[in-house]
Write a structure and sequence with these properties.
Layout lengths: L2 E2 L3 H8 L3 E12 L6 E7 L2 E8 L2 E7 L5 E9 L6 E7 L2 E7 L4 E8 L3 E10 L6 E7 L2 E8 L2 E7 L5 E9 L6 E7 L2 E7 L3 E8 L3 E10 L4 E9 L2 E8 L4 E7 L5 E10 L5 E7 L2 E8 L2 E10 L31 E2 L13 H11 L4 E4 L7 E9 L3 E11 L13 H9 L7 E4 L14 E4 L1 H4 L3 E2 L2 E2 L7 H15 L2 E9 L11 E9 L14 E7 L3 H5 L11
Antiparallel strand pairs: 1-22, 2-25, 3-4, 4-5, 5-6, 7-8, 8-9, 9-10, 11-12, 12-13, 13-14, 15-16, 16-17, 17-18, 19-20, 20-21, 21-22, 23-24, 24-25, 26-36, 27-28, 28-29, 29-34, 30-31, 32-33, 34-35, 35-36
């Protein structure tokens, strides 16, 4: 059944830097049995999942388009298993499962996604309420939580359970939990459905200190963690069986922002995250019926809801007219802004766009232009919105020639809801190797598009603007003989309703003559820039709803 996105879009605007959406369906179908446990694993450059329900199990390949491949193996066990996980240690893939009566086994998975021989088996003295693997410095351990007691034991490369490395007792009775890793540190999340806690697991399979704890917003029913584009998230379903959310963990192991939430029409008792070819998916199961959907990080990436006065001068003579100064704003890679310290997401997002058939991506093979590709979103029969561009700017692309805008360009920009004071602005400047074709032009506020003078003095803001970045690129290429990587994402605020760009995200990379990233003077090798395309109406009315566009 389809999602009811009752408030997912507005959630992105208010609760996180990089929005996350559960997106379009890639496949649906049904299984012959009801399966309760799913594990993703990777081997031989392929992605598989192991499914277990009652006595029955199977292994299937997960294809790059988010669909299921053929069975690679399937069968029937002598016992039913209700908990388990997969893990890979020193190149060997194993599956661990345990019955309701505490019997467990470990079995190897062989090349091609086939189930191999059993490597170990045994019986726990007590029934675990939680059991999952943790990976610390490439050593695997299994954490077993039984009532309030917990035990940590080593998992060996031979597919056996080794020595106990730690044990203890917690005050609370945890019924849900999972492991997650960020920047080489191993954490665990635990909850008794009323309160939650995160802890670190440290070297040698020892339980570290509690990082943070808090109260659950609602009583959770199930959790599935996943890692996407350098960020650790988890999907949660609350006990209503319809109310879902996606939340981020911070690198410290503390809880981050909620990035998406919504309501399902049906109850999905399984929600398996998996990644193929760098694209994130989730496989949802309702009884025997399944549906697979893409998971995306979505622009606008950072909800920078700034004070409008920083964009719109209160001086009447500077209000939005032809003398209104452009906004100059930069957020440097590695800078101090917690919301967007790393602009490399621009590359990741463009890569996702190029793989997504929702957009049309054109590869450019013309030595006269620096452009390498551009991606567009079709809006009706005659309008194409440019949403992303890639370029490599060399000395041969630099020019001082100027050409008048063609009628085709003027017509195109007019269709994009051009504001009364907007100018015809290029995305990649022709002086840097940009094309004169219509897709390279959009309506731009004069505060972005040109260098303006008031009373003979250049109006300067404290940070770089579009004009300054173009000059910086030109100077670098001309003086060093290196080249510049130029990567742009154009956001339209609400793609369903807007044709005029609302902001631009630009990533600039300096390469030396040998093609290596390099700093240049005070300029970093990688710098990200953010520009907002403020319309006249928003500058005349500082309480305009434009300032609350969901970025």
């Amino acid at each position: 059944m389809l999602l009811l996105f009752l408030y997912a879009i507005t959630a992105i605007a208010h609760v996180g830097c990089i929005g996350v959406t559960i997106s379009n369906e890639t496949e649906n179908g049904s299984y012959s049995e009801k399966y309760e446990i799913f594990f993703e694993f990777k081997m031989d450059g392929k992605t598989y999942f192991f499914a277990l329900g009652g006595f029955y199990w199977f292994i299937k390949e997960l294809l790059k388009d988010g669909t299921l491949g053929p069975y690679t193996d399937k069968g029937k066990f002598a016992y039913t298993y209700n908990k388990g996980f997969a893990y890979n240690i020193q190149g060997k893939q194993y599956v661990y499962a345990i019955t309701e009566t505490n019997y467990w086994f470990i079995q190897e998975i062989l090349t091609g996604g086939r189930l191999g021989k059993e490597t170990s088996k045994g019986r726990w003295d007590s029934t675990p309420n939680l059991i999952f693997p943790v990976n610390v410095n490439r050593e695997y351990f299994v954490l077993t939580v039984s009532s309030q007691n917990w035990y940590m034991k080593q998992l060996t490369s031979a597919g056996t359970v080794g020595k106990q490395t730690d044990k203890g007792k917690w005050i609370k009775y945890y019924t849900l939990g999972f492991p997650f890793s960020i920047q080489g540190r191993q954490f665990i999340y635990l909850t008794d459905t009323a309160r939650w806690s995160t802890r670190e697991v440290i070297s040698g399979g020892k339980m570290g200190k509690e990082i943070v704890n808090g109260q659950c917003r609602k009583k959770p029913l199930l959790y599935y963690p996943f890692f996407m584009r350098g960020k650790q998230y988890y999907y949660g379903l609350n006990q209503s069986k319809k109310d879902w959310f996606i939340q981020e963990f911070k690198p410290s192991g503390k809880m981050g922002s909620v990035h998406a939430l919504g309501l399902w029409e049906d109850y999905y008792h399984v929600a398996l995250p998996f990644t193929t070819d760098g694209v994130q998916f989730m496989h949802f199961l309702n009884d025997k019926n399944y549906i697979t959907r893409k998971v995306k990080q979505t622009p606008p990436f950072c909800p920078i809801l700034v004070n409008p006065q920083s964009y719109c001068s209160e001086e009447p003579k500077l209000k939005c007219g032809p003398l209104y100064p452009r906004v100059e704003r930069v957020l440097n890679y590695g800078g101090s802004s917690e919301a967007c310290t790393d602009f490399n997401f621009i590359n990741d997002y463009i890569a996702d766009i190029m793989k997504d058939d929702y957009y049309v991506t054109v590869k450019v093979n013309d030595p006269k232009t620096a452009l390498k590709s551009y991606s567009q979103l079709k809006k009706g029969a005659t309008i194409d919105l440019t949403v992303a561009m890639n370029a490599e700017i060399y000395q041969k692309h630099l020019t001082s020639e100027k050409s008048a805008d063609s009628q085709a360009v003027r017509d195109h920009v007019r269709k994009l809801e051009q504001d009364e004071n907007d100018e015809i602005g290029h995305l990649l400047a022709p002086s840097l190797g940009g094309t004169l074709q219509a897709y390279n032009f959009v309506p731009q506020s004069p505060m972005i598009n040109r260098k303006l003078l008031v009373a003979g003095n250049s109006i300067r803001a404290p940070q770089r603007g579009w004009f300054d970045v173009e000059r910086l690129i030109r100077n670098y290429v001309a003086e060093t003989g290196g080249h510049v990587g130029w990567h742009l994402v154009i956001s339209y605020g609400n793609l369903a309703n807007s044709l005029r760009p609302t902001e631009f995200w630009l990533l600039v990379k300096f390469y030396d003559a040998d093609g290596k990233l390099t700093n240049w003077g005070a300029n970093k090798a990688i710098t990200g820039y953010h520009f907002r395309n403020v319309p006249t109406e928003a500058c005349e009315n500082l309480n305009s709803t434009w300032w609350n566009i969901p970025y």
